[in-house]
Write a structure and sequence with these properties.
The protein is mainly α. Among the domains are: 117 residues, no CATH class; 71 residues. The protein is built from nine helices and six strands, in the order H-H-E-H-H-E-E-H-E-H-H-E-E-H-H. A four-stranded antiparallel beta sheet has the order 1-4-2-3. Strands 5-6 form a two-stranded antiparallel sheet. A hairpin with a 5-residue loop joins strand 5 and strand 6. The longest helix is centred in the last third of the chain and has 75 residues. It starts with a helix and ends in a 7-residue tail after the last helix.
């Protein structure tokens, strides 16, 4: 009787402990204390800076790290065996095996199955099931689906690890593409140089090759001839301009010599006329020309006058062009009619030309 009562008490106690353990496990599961939060709050700027410093992104180093925090302690129900305990975290050797399996499958070389775009330099995560996705794409999928389930194999839960295999492959691909472009450019350039030196064996290509060669030679000759002709024409223009300057100077000198000779001839004729006329009196004052010490002037009209008489005559005719004084004297009509300004000019120029 006592044994039955004690066993029933022990069962009730165990049942109460199990009920409390299950209630605690359900409460923890619903509150989200077990495992990472599906809807995490936006991290602050200082938290992001600390995370970047921890992961080495600021220094530009590509370090691999696990995104999930440390595993929470087991609940009472899990310790009593009422609920299956979660699988243990993967070790470094297990992560290396998962990564090698992912590399063998070539997941990093393929586009992301969520956004169907290449990984390029964007952050990517490796799941514990060896599948690779964009970090942003996986977070968006978790946020909208409300569960941590692999999009490919539907495994849950999973662990995530940040890797950079896609970025490395993209850099190698870019480097190969750049090297390919450069090698193609260098090969085409060298091939063009070789084609200019070595003629082809095909008859049509060989004919075209020599036609191009002759065309290049012709163009070079035309360019050189054009430059030579331009230089020659420039020299001709300069020579013609210099010759014109010489002829112009010669014409000016010849003209001045002819003018001087003509002037001398006119004065010689004027002196001859004055001698032939044989006038001994001044037409203005009617006094002998050589009786006084006054200067005698010879005009271009071959008349002789006293200088003082001519100056007085010019002063008596201001503001107009007076006729020669000899035109109103005893000189016959039509013999002299030169204007006074010509007389004045001759008087200034030939003040020493007198008649004896």
């Amino acid at each position: 009787m006592l044994k039955g009562r004690s066993s029933s008490r022990e069962d009730r106690r165990k049942l109460a402990v199990a009920a409390a353990a299950l209630q605690d496990h359900i409460t923890r599961s619903l509150s989200g204390s077990e495992g990472p939060n599906i809807f995490p709050a936006a991290p602050s700027r200082s938290h992001r800076a600390r995370q970047h410093r921890h992961t080495g992104f600021i220094l530009g180093e590509e370090q691999e790290y696990i995104l999930e925090p440390e595993a929470p302690p087991l609940t009472l129900a899990q310790r009593l065996g009422l609920v299956a305990a979660p699988a243990g975290r993967l070790t470094a050797e297990e992560w290396a095996e998962v990564k090698s399996r992912s590399l063998q499958e070539g997941d990093s070389a393929q586009p992301c199955v969520i956004c169907t775009e290449e990984f390029r330099l964007q952050p990517q995560v490796l799941l514990s099931c060896s599948h690779v996705f964009h970090m942003v794409c996986l977070k968006s999928l978790e946020r909208f689906s409300g569960r941590r389930c692999c999009p490919l194999c539907r495994r849950e839960p999973y662990e995530t690890r940040v890797i950079h295999d896609g970025a490395k492959l993209y850099r190698e691909k870019c480097a190969v593409r750049i090297q390919t472009c450069w090698r193609g450019f260098a090969a085409r350039k060298s091939y063009r140089a070789v084609r200019k030196l070595i003629p082809p064996n095909h008859p049509q290509l060989r004919r075209r090759y020599f036609e191009e060669k002759f065309q290049e030679i012709n163009e070079s000759l035309v360019r050189s001839c054009c430059s030579d002709v331009e230089v020659f024409l420039l020299d001709v223009d300069q020579t013609v301009a210099a010759s014109r300057d010489v002829f112009r100077l010669f014409d000016q000198q010849q003209k001045s010599v002819l003018e001087e000779e003509g002037e001398e001839e006119e004065w010689r004729k004027a002196r001859e006329k004055a001698v032939q006329r044989d006038i001994s009196d001044c037409p203005i004052c009617l006094t002998p020309l050589h009786s006084t010490s006054r200067q005698v002037l010879l005009l271009s009209c071959s008349h002789l006058l006293h200088e003082s008489c001519l100056q007085a005559f010019e002063r008596f005719c201001p503001g107009e062009t007076p006729p020669a004084p000899c035109a109103a004297a005893d000189t016959p009509p039509g013999l002299c009619g030169a204007p006074t300004h010509i007389l004045q000019k001759i008087r200034n120029v030939e003040s020493t030309k007198t008649c004896g």
